[in-house]
Amino acid sequence: MAAAHRCQPGPQPYAVQWALPGCYSAAHTARPQHYPGSEEVSARREETHELWRAIKKLKPAEREIIYLRYFLDLSVEETALALKLAGGTVKSRLSRALGYLKQVVEREHAWLVQEGPV
Predict the structure, then answer these.
(1) Which one of 24, 56, 80, 96 has the lowest number of neighbouring Cβ atoms within 10 Å?
(2) Counting Cβ atoms within 10 Å, is residue 82 exposed (0-12), middle (13-18) or buried (19+)?
(3) d(Cα 103, Cα 23) in Å, to the nearest integer?
(4) What does the pLDDT average to over 99-105?
């Protein structure tokens, strides 16, 4: 029964593990584009920029888990395989990272919490 909960290895976690360095490099060097004339897009861009500032305050391992789970949309099991961690470790690190991120956003970027999505 316990084996039913284990993730079946597949190509995606290994591909992610191989591609991670390139993704980080591309994300780090990418420059945001400007869409003039749209207040909504401008406000969304500012929210995204502020959220990235908060994410950058996380430890590298925490940023990596956030990136894999929420930006690459990997499952806990796929994230665990990509990082060579146990699923429970991924969950606990993710919980800690999200808790810290929430504190940073509430403390330094309170307007993101107060206004909500545009």
Answers:
(1) 56
(2) buried
(3) 27
(4) 86
